[in-house]
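In this section we walk through a basic example: taking a raw amino acid sequence and producing a predicted 3D structure, encoded as discrete structure tokens. The instruction is simple. Fold the sequence below.
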Amino acid sequence: MDILYLMILCSVSLAAIFLVVFIVYARKGQFEDDESPAVRILFDDEKIRENNDPGDKDKDKKETGENNKN
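The resulting token sequence is shown next.
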């Protein structure tokens, strides 16, 4: 019977810790924006293409080694 009290005490303590952590991060705004990370993956490629400088073409040529030529 003593182990039952110990298990109840441990589970309630763990639940209280999780509740406190959740409240702290909810107040910091961790869970405010839940839509943009799912949509951001769709637009990452376009942002990279828009941000490329004309000087980056030389970088692409350098990265292509002898084994990577078509």
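Looking at the output, two observations stand out. The mean pLDDT is 77. Helices lie at 2-28, 36-51, 56-63. In the next section we compare this with other chains.
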